Amino acid sequence: MARRTSESPLLFELPPVPTDAIERRLRRSGHKAIAGVDEVGRGPLAGPVVAAAVILDPIRIPDGLNDSKKLTAAVREALFEQIMASAHVSVVAASVLRIDTTNIRQATLWAMAQAVRGLPHAADHVLVDGNDVPPGLACRGEAFVKGDGRSVSIAAASIVAKVTRDRMMVRAAAHYPDYGFERHVGYGTAFHLDALASLGACPLHRTSFAPIRALLAKENAAGSADGVDRFDEEFLVS
Questions:
Q1: What pLDDT score does 238 carry?
Q2: Residue 73: closest CA among 144, 143, 167
Q3: pLDDT tens, 104-126?
Q4: How far apart are CA 165 and CA 17, in angstroms?
């Protein structure tokens, strides 16, 4: 009979679902307002990148918090309502114009920092999903790779950011109905790419992203494009 063993400690270090272990450790060291921060929308070809900061009430942590990508839309919506009712929350959307005039990384870090600053109760420690702590925070921060699967605070932020951005893209579909934004929320699906090929880009498309840049270059070479009108809208919800 074959036997298999694993020498990868990482498989045993990451919990199967987020816990409040990191938050409890920080509270034992004197921190009281611990904010989880996450973003949604780095990869799409269209729409803003949205960051959320959430300070959970340690005695009212909603059950079932997890990485938003691992949850169904119905579960995300239900958890979103619970988080908004019980936690301090701030959400910031960095516009397409900001993404294109800086870059997606800088726009994301800006949105994260603004979300922390926008919290109705100041954080004294920040937990960030990913590799980078946004510069300019008023308190210490830590970055955790796959943090939305480790920390309930980061998981809550991922849910708030995801639900907020999805709702924004549904509203965008009402203004630009032929692109299917309500279906793919700006990601480069086959449907989206087909719509781009037939319709060209709209003001929500990120011209700094290679597929959109190539499309505009092709249109300009053919003499059929006047450029894409741009607008700068950034949103703060606290």
A1: 38
A2: 167
A3: 999 999 999 999 999 999 999 99
A4: 23
pLDDT category of residue 33 using cuts at 50, 70 and 90: very high
What span, in angstroms and rounded, lies between the C-alpha atoms of 142 and 138?
13
Tokens 């070809």: give the residue.
45
Q: Which of 41, 33, 36, 35 is nearest to 235 (CA)?
A: 41
pLDDT in tens, 200-216: 999 999 999 999 999 88
Under 8 Å between Cβ of 51 and 94:
yes
Report strand pairing: 235-237 vs 140-144.
Answer: unpaired
Instruction: Calculate the alpha carbon distances from 159 to 27, 42, 99, 232 in Å.
Output: 23, 15, 22, 25
* Bridge partners, residue 49, by sequence: 94
pTM comes to 0.87
Query: Which residues lie below 8 Å from residue 118, measured CB to CB, with a gap of 6+?
Result: 53, 90, 91, 92, 236, 238
Q: Quick check: 40 and 50 in contact, CB under 8 A?
A: yes
